[in-house]
Design goal:
- The longest helix has 12 residues.
- It contains 2 helices and 8 strands, in the order E-H-E-E-E-E-H-E-E-E.
- The protein has an 8-stranded mixed sheet, with helices on one face.
- It is of the alpha+beta class.
- The chain starts with 5 loop residues before the first strand and ends with a strand.
């Protein structure tokens, strides 16, 4: 198989119903305080991983965690996975700081995230 490779899963976002209640649980689990703590996102860096808490599942109303595969070229990877049978769930967009994200669904409806840092 040819195409673009990934840098692996390094970001996982978790929808939470109560950000204030979830934050200390994840801090205890990860053994670190959050590096980002806002009303719309709490983010932790642990062992090279970004673990994010998204209240109410965010604007896309996530109902389960979403793993984000880090890629060098998000547009190329999006084209590759959709050609292979995935469906665009959330098109490529900048979430700030030059970080691009997109999500697709696999044939079973599982949401897969793509992430590119510029």
């Amino acid at each position: 198989m040819s195409g673009t490779s990934t840098e692996g899963v390094r970001t996982v976002l978790h929808p939470v119903s109560d950000l204030a209640a979830a934050t200390p649980v994840y801090a205890a689990l990860l053994g670190t305080a959050p590096q980002s703590d806002t009303p719309y996102y709490v983010g932790f860096e642990a062992a090279g991983q970004q673990i994010g808490l998204v209240p109410g599942g965010g604007p896309r109303a996530m109902t389960s965690p979403v793993a984000y595969w880090h890629v060098a070229d998000i547009e190329a990877k999006l084209a590759e996975v959709t050609a292979a049978g995935a469906t665009v769930h959330e098109p490529v967009h900048d979430v700030g700081g030059g970080r691009l994200v997109a999500t697709v669904t696999d044939p079973d409806g599982n949401v897969l995230g793509l992430l590119q840092d510029r």
